[in-house]
Write a structure and sequence with these properties.
alpha/beta; 3-stranded parallel β-sheet; two-stranded parallel sheet
Length: 171
C-alpha cells in the first residue's frame, strides 16, 4: 500500500514496482491506482474524509480479492487517516505492507501539473490532504521513502528490494 500526499510519487513508484517485478518474471501483479480503481467501486464517491475512508476500505477489499486470485496487489492511495490504514492492515494481514512517501506539501505543490494544490491553497477545495486536512503518518510504516532527495530509480530499487524481502522473509 503506497501512500502519501498527492504529487509525492505514488503512481510513479507503483508503476515502477510493477514493471520491476514483471522484469523478474513476477507477472501476477495488479496495480490499483487512483481514478482507475475508483471506477471499479459500486458508486461514485467524493473526497470527504468519510468518503475517502469508505473508498480505502473498498479498495482494501479489491486488494483482498486480487490476493485471493493469487495475484499481488499494489495499491496507490492517499489514505490520510491513520486509523483507516490500521483497519485495512488488519483486514489484509499478513498481505499488507505500508510504504509512506515522505514529501513536503510545497514540493508536491510544485509537482502538481493539474493545479489542485494551488486551488486548495487559494481556498477553492475543501478536504484537500496536506492543505485543509492533515496527513496522519503511521507510527511504524513498513518503509518510508524520501521522494524529494532520492531519484525515482533509487526509490524504485529500494521499494523492489523491500517488497522481495516482504514476500520471502525467511530468505
Amino acid at each position: 500500500w503506497i501512500t502519501g500526499l498527492s504529487g509525492s510519487g505514488k503512481t510513479t513508484l507503483g508503476t515502477g514496482l510493477k514493471q520491476a517485478l514483471q522484469s523478474l518474471g513476477v507477472l501476477n501483479v495488479e496495480l490499483l491506482d487512483g481514478d482507475e480503481t475508483r471506477k471499479q467501486l459500486p458508486k461514485d464517491y467524493g473526497y470527504s474524509t468519510e468518503d475517502r475512508k469508505t473508498v480505502g476500505l473498498l479498495v482494501g477489499k479489491l486488494a483482498d480479492e486480487c490476493n485471493k486470485r493469487g495475484n499481488i496487489a499494489i495499491v496507490c492511495a492517499i489514505s490520510h487517516v491513520k486509523q483507516t490504514r490500521t483497519q485495512i492492515r488488519e483486514y489484509l494481514s499478513p498481505n499488507f505492507m505500508e510504504v509512506y512517501l515522505d514529501c513536503p506539501v510545497e514540493v508536491c505543490a510544485d509537482r502538481d501539473i493539474k493545479g489542485h494544490y494551488h486551488k486548495a491553497l487559494a481556498g477553492e477545495y475543501d478536504n484537500f490532504i496536506g492543505v485543509t486536512e492533515p496527513y496522519q503518518v503511521s507510527e511504524q510504516p513498513d518503509l518510508i521513502l524520501d521522494t524529494v532527495n532520492q531519484s525515482v530509480a533509487r526509490c524504485t530499487d529500494i521499494l523492489l528490494d523491500h517488497t522481495l524481502k516482504f514476500f520471502a522473509p525467511d530468505s
